[in-house]
Amino acid sequence: MSKRRYRKRRKKKTSNFGCLIFILIVGVLLFAGGMKIFDRIYTYDSYTQQNVLKRHRKFINALLPAANDVQRRYNILVSISLAQAILESDWGTSQLSSQYNNLYGVKASGNQPSVNLSTQEFVNGQFITITGRFRVYNSWSESVESHALLLVNGTDWNPNQYKDVIDSDNYVAAAKGLQVDGYATDPTYRNKIIEIIRKYKLYQYDKQTTTTGGTSNETTGR
Q1: 5-54 tens-digit pLDDT
Q2: Collapsed DSSP state (helix, strand, coil) of residue 162
């Protein structure tokens, strides 16, 4: 009798071990699949264009993490965030960007940290120099985030000020939206943004770009 009981126990133990192995395999497969999805959504390649100045590559790579983050959270295309930063800050060399971390010329309001600096505005068909009160940030990443929130939340007088930019699914439409929605007074602002994006192939980081099959913003945006 004791021998039969012993055999039954061993059979049950073997069965439990098989279930444990099965659960472990399923868990590993689910984890691997989850990591693959996470990698597709949240990672990106470094900017390595060889025909670009080293300091320009460094600047783009410095902003890529923040630009990808605001694309994921606020639907601001990476190419737009990068191109505007390049144009507005002259590759991070302007006084406003290098000393006060303001990459986009965002103005200050209320009790926000600020600095008064001279700037050019296009008024009555010509550029004039005025003094503006600009935001001061702790880092470039904070500036990228603030710029995205400005586009998403609009201005105090018009929450939908930049709706055309937010609703755009390609960089050409977004650049046009910046011009139409009054982000800058320069009448050639749209063309300058598009030229930068195309010259440095910044569209490769926009969310619609695919590596196999499909289309990219470079094709659909024209």
Answers
A1: 555 555 555 566 666 777 777 666 665 554 444 444 456 789 998 899 99
A2: coil
* Block residue for tokens 């590993």: 28
Residue keyed to tokens 């965002």: 106
Rounded to the nearest 10°, the torsion over CA 158, 160, 165, 168 is -170
Contacts of 136 (CB under 8 A, 6+ apart): 100, 101, 102, 108, 112, 113, 114, 115
Which tens digit of pLDDT belongs to each residue from 97-118? 999 999 999 999 889 999 998 7
In single-letter form, the type of residue at position 59 comes to F
Candidates 91, 96, 140, 93; CA nearest to 119 is: 96
CA distance 96 to 101: 6
Residue 119 phi, psi dihedral angles, 5° rounding? -150, 165
Cross-strand pairs, 129: 120
- What six digits make up the tokens of 149? 């929130």
Query: How many CB atoms within 10 Å of residue 164?
Result: 16
Strand partners of residue 115: 134
In what helix (H) or strand (E) does residue 119 lie, and over which residues does it extend? strand 114-123
- Round to whole Å and give the CA distance between 116 and 131: 6
Distance CA 19, CA 33 (A): 21
**Contact between residue 158 and residue 169 where contact means Cβ atoms under 8 Å apart:** no
